[in-house]
Design a protein that fits this description.
Blueprint lengths: L1 E5 L2 E7 L16 E4 L10 E9 L2 E10 L11 E4 L2 E6 L2 E6 L5 E6 L5 E7 L4 E6 L2 E5 L5 E6 L8 E4 L2 E5 L5 E5 L9
């Protein structure tokens, strides 16, 4: 489970592997059910529940459901900026309004799995750490650029001011300019 705060609002994001879309018999219930990948035809690998509360009282709840590669919940699964919570779910990044958790948009930022989402204050954008691609997204969910490497980006990811440092399966290091998406010399 991941816990975030926004002013006096507490946001929790959790895995809900046993959640069954459309069922009334789920162990956990949510006010909103957002299917991000309708073409998955019921084969959903990522099910992330989100709840907001203030002073111990629930404000809203939703579950984000997607196919593609499964994404887990960890420190970089979600980030808050302004009045939005951005969450990596399967191959998507989704934006939820705070505190009511209305789905603002969702974008497929990787063709396999989005491992995490980051906010770059200097560039006022989101960076998606995907399994196969690193992508820059506008705060409205538009992909500004996307770039891949020789293998999956599984061995490290870091924002370094004006660039992203990402390491692939074979420990090859990539430095990617946040502004342009071009690789930088090391």
């Amino acid at each position: 489970m991941l816990e975030l705060t926004h002013g006096n609002i507490r946001i929790t994001v959790s895995n809900n592997h046993t959640y069954s879309v459309g069922s009334v018999d789920n162990a956990a219930s949510f006010k909103h059910e957002y299917l991000l990948d309708p073409k998955s035809e019921g084969h959903y690998s990522s099910k992330h529940g989100v709840r907001t509360e203030r002073d111990g009282d629930e404000i809203a709840s939703c579950i984000l459901v997607a196919g593609g590669g499964a994404s887990g919940i960890h420190t970089n699964s979600a980030v808050i900026h302004a009045n939005s919570c951005y969450i990596a779910v399967g191959p998507f990044v989704a934006s939820l309004s705070l505190p009511l958790l209305q789905l603002e948009w969702y974008t497929e930022s990787d063709c396999a799995t989005c491992f995490g989402v980051y906010f770059s204050p200097k560039h006022q954008c989101l960076i998606s750490h995907g399994e196969l691609e690193v992508a820059r997204l506008s705060l409205k969910g538009e992909i500004v650029w996307s770039t891949g490497g020789a293998d999956i980006f599984s061995n490290g990811f870091e924002l370094l001011g004006d660039c992203v440092k990402v390491i692939d399966f074979y420990d090859q290091i990539y430095l990617i300019d946040i502004e342009s998406g071009r690789g930088l010399m090391r």
